[in-house]
Here is the input.
Amino acid sequence: MRKEPARWIRIIAPLILVVIWLGVSGVGGPTFGKISEVANNDQASYLPASAESTQVQSDLKKFFPSDTVPAIVVYARSAGVSAADTSWVADRISALQSVDGVGTVVGPIPSSDGQAFQVLVPVKSSAVATTVIGEVRTVAVDGVPSGLTSYVTGPAALIVDFAGGFSGIDGILLLVALLAVFVILLIVYRSPLLPILVLLTSTFALTGSILVVYWLAKADVITVTGQSQGILSILALGAATDYSLLLVARYREALTQHRTGWSAMRVAYRAALEPIAASAATVILGVLCLLLSGLNSNRGLGPVAAIGILFAMLAALTALPALLVLCGRAAFWPFRPKYVEPVDGAPAPVKTARLWVGVGRVISRRPRPVWIVSVLLLGAASLGLLQLQANGVPQTDLLLTQSDSVDGQRLLAKHFDAGSGSPVYIVADAGKADQVVSLATGTKNVSDAVLFTGATGAPGTPGAPVPPAKVVDGTVLIEATLGVEADSDAAQKVVTTLRDTLPAVDASAKVGGVTALALDTTDTATADLHVVIPAVLLVVLVVLMLLLRSILAPLLLIGTVVLSYAATLGISALVFNHLLHFPGADASVPLFGFVFLVALGVDYNIFLMTRVREESLKHGTRPGIIRGVQATGGVITAAGIVLAATFSALGVIPILFLVQLAFIVAFGVLLDTILVRTLLVPALSYDIGRRIWWPSKLGREGAESDRP
Here is the structure.
């Protein structure tokens, strides 16, 4: 038996580690509230510079005197606006113009039905949009006549309200996630101290990762969005807790076979190091595949998520062992694991819960029916994929709570051209301007198309001379007003039609604007599925082959992961369409769901199969499978429930994308934990026997007994 170091070393060494992590947490903790300052939720910045809408966005800066985003104040009275209403709205123009951060206000522009006015309020991009829109909303309703409805809407207001949906990420999300994890750990361990130690470890991982992400984002090395900010918190907490559960399970097991906590931790650490490191490496490599995405926002999420997983691993392999060694058996109070004297030189057997003994018995007696029924169930659930609607959703449907901008957009569409305030921009050759305007005007769902003149102020009087078009570098800007809502499918078809037909008139013409940005984002996200998914599968497959020293086992495991993902997406589609009645899903939802489900689902494959291989080397493959299931069943189930709970916390943020991702990952993890890792993988492996390890030595004839 290896001699233990001196007592003072066993105390000072872990204390130093804990103090280091406390220092990291002390510096990183305050950064948690500041990460929103470096987050970028501007859709235009999501796309690469090569995207046509991004190029138009850059060209717009040459035509407009300042870079602005339009807000629209809409006033309406169902009985028809009165002369007093007209006078009052006109008086509001100077007040709106005086708001700091507002450009030249245009209006009031009356509706053709005589029931509404709209006022165009350009918000300078250099201004703090949240503050400006807040002041505009205050000014717009100050003293509004009774019965006159008023909303501030348009792209600028929608962006502000959308960003406001992320306001709970810094507080509510973290609180809900921590509370859920604490309750689950309390039930699992039945100990008041151990959950605190695990949560402290997770907090170390979160604060450390946020510190690094904040400074990288501030230095413009990576892009952070509200989505990646929320996902970072969930990933760091969930992954650190999962890794901690595995180490704690091994430590508790070792405490029954070793007298001191130090000796037990040495054995537990050696056993847990490989699966934890392999699991973290797999997830890190998997999320880094997002760097292949065409969307800047997705590429930014890759490093952000990888940093979260890296710190989760570091905290679980340094902070938690130190805390456990300092606490010893007291960490498990009041159910402290007792040391059991070895019998005939062999360590005492580890007690197995009745549930997992029963599961092992079912697998060993009926392996083929078990895995066949499991595959059929997953296959049936996968049929729901036929109903998946992941072609993007209107911006007004992204927020799941009431907002003035969404209500105002509906009111605007009722009284004006639905695309008012969010025109389709066409940058064309100045010599072909008339032909381009004519073609755009004749396009279905385009109500009007005019050359941009650069003139400011309210529209001129009828019959007045029209100012000449503004020409910049030999190009002109055409503003096409849509007759349909700018964030609708019909509007995107207009952009597609214009891009298809304009080259016949002007080969250099480019189409952009809010609608084009949304279309290009959806198209890029859809293309990402064909690039990122194969890359993730390849990375995971290689890691599993290296870890398990096998080819057949990893191929089968990848197959179960893909089947589990398809079943999850199928059930999710049914829930979204028929229970929650969502309007659809963002095109990035299937991609994000795949990356996280596959990368995180492999965690449980690794936890299970590394233990199965360990037991198979001692007892043979089939007995090793049963022993592996019995030894890891509890920890994998607990880890899955914890991870599902942490991802479910994303549902408190009223953003459609995050709510859908929360359901997909939470349901998928539970499906993986309860069915795939518990029944399908063990039963399939048991049915195949030692050949599962082909072509390694363990899979050859003459290896350890393969009999149960």
